[in-house]
Specification:
Distance between the termini: 48 Å
Structural class: alpha+beta
Number of helices: 4
Radius of gyration: 18 Å
CATH architecture of the largest domain: 2-Layer Sandwich
Number of domains: 2
Order of helices and strands: EHHEEEEHH
Strand content: 25-35%
Length: 120
């Protein structure tokens, strides 16, 4: 069998990336498609990594990968923006926007709640 760069059998998933996929509630197909046919492909922030991005309707999937010694792509991280409703990422984003809109005392209250582990 001829293995091309689009062959998903050459992908290696880290435990972190698999957990993110489940936590962020989007299909593995999105990640595979993003790597196979990216809209953009640039060098990642970390040395030796590549960032792939692809738009799916109103969402953008981002995948961070690196090549191992056998030239297999190791998926290090993946996310979708905007986050899926009900996910931890969506709750964190909503909390961030609430903090940005809050006045001085609201920010104090939000900060106190975070420090006691009562919110994101």
């Amino acid at each position: 069998m001829l293995k091309t760069r689009y062959d998903t059998s050459m992908l290696i998933w880290t435990h972190h990336a698999k957990k993110q996929l489940l936590d962020r509630k989007f299909p593995q197909f999105f990640v595979e498609r993003t790597i196979a046919i990216p809209d953009t492909k640039v060098a990642g922030r970390e040395k030796g990594t590549t960032e792939y991005q692809k738009r799916f309707d109103t969402s953008i999937v981002t995948v961070i990968g690196t090549r191992n010694d056998q030239n297999e792509l190791v998926i290090v991280s993946c996310w979708i923006d905007p986050p899926r409703p009900g996910t931890r990422d969506a709750k964190k984003k909503a909390a961030y926007h609430a903090y940005q809109r809050a006045g001085f005392w609201g920010k104090v209250w939000i900060t106190l709640k975070r420090q006691f582990g009562l919110s994101y």
